[in-house]
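Q: For a teaching handout, I want to show students what a protein-ligand complex looks like in token form. Below are the inputs, and the small molecule is zinc ion. Please produce the holo structure.
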Amino acid sequence: MTAKRFQENNEDRISISTPTDNDPTLVHCPKCQSKAFVILYHDEVRLSCPSCGYNQAKLAEQRTFYWGAENPADSYFGVDLWLQTDCAGQSLWAFNRRHLEYLEDFVSAKHRQRNPNIETWQNSSLASRLPKWLKAAKNRPQILKAIEVLKSRV
Ligand SMILES: [Zn+2]
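A: Here is the structure, written as tokens, with zinc ion included.
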């Protein structure tokens, strides 16, 4: 068995929470609580719910983060994230599919390499901001299981 390596990329907290064309932010619809999508369209973000037709749009530059929260919201509309579950007595959450994959790579890796190009706070890497419990080896099996559960909900 070869030890899996985690090579830190340039993903930071702003970039990971920004929806892309094929990877929207998944949220709870504020009206019906079903799975809804936040997408970026030019300089606008749009929240839309396929279940009830709820729609909302606003300028993408207005963002608020609650990184320390148990469920820190989508950063644009302040709605709850769809990908949230309890894990090891903590809250495991992700904005989107690539965030889940990022966490999976990070947690499953035995060796973690820091990206030396990331220095400033503004660009502070996502890995450096992950909570301690996510980095604890004893939590690894539980966390990977929870990530699997969340992936099935994407
Ligand atoms: Zn809805």
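A: Two things your students might notice: The mean pLDDT is 88. The beta strands are 5-7, 25-28, 35-41, 44-48, 55-59, 83-87, 90-94, 111-113.
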